[in-house]
Amino acid sequence: MMHPFATSLLEVFEQYADPKRAAEMSAYMKEIDAFYGIPSPHRKQIAKEVLNAHGKGVLQDWQVICSTLMKHGKR
Fold it and tell me: DSSP class of residue 64?
């Protein structure tokens, strides 16, 4: 089961995904991984909003969250 914070974050990333930009990002990074195509400043803002919605106490689970997101495979 995925951590609720990771689930929320990935759901929002899916909403803002830009397939055209994602392909460009992937090509630029030599196809090392899949991307959502969300520019870094916007991606950081999304993460802040999701964090605020869940509360900073969720950061106690940072290892589980990071592991979950890394296994998901998109950036």
Answer: H
